[in-house]
Amino acid sequence: MMDTRIIEIRDSGTTIICMASKFGALSSWEEWAVARSGYGSDMESRGWYVILWPMDGGSSLCTTDPFDWPASRGGRTMFEAHRWLRDTADWENIKSGSVVDVEFLLGETDEPKKSEINHLV
After folding, report:
1. pLDDT (tens digit, 9 = 90+) per residue, 2-32?
2. Residue 23 in 3-state DSSP?
3. 3-state DSSP assignment of residue 66
4. What is the residue extent of each domain of the chain?
């Protein structure tokens, strides 16, 4: 089973809605399939993977590697957000609706951006 959240990744003039997933508890077959695919044979070895997928109609890259993001697919924004989610974030505190503000993470702004939904309600 995947542990999935829908998050908002923000940067200067940028909002990217993404699905972010980590491996959760798996059935025997899923354990085998995940290990066979190279993601590790136990929770410890596969626990650091974050699968990130921009929700733009299915034409985007979906990857576990922050270094896979080309400039044409969000470059800095996706790289920094993905790396933070993988290496720094406390996954349990990331909820659907969370905002990952790249400018704030990089120290370029003093406070994190709020969700765009705040403008709608």
Report:
1. 899 999 999 999 999 999 999 888 899 999 9
2. strand
3. helix
4. 2-119
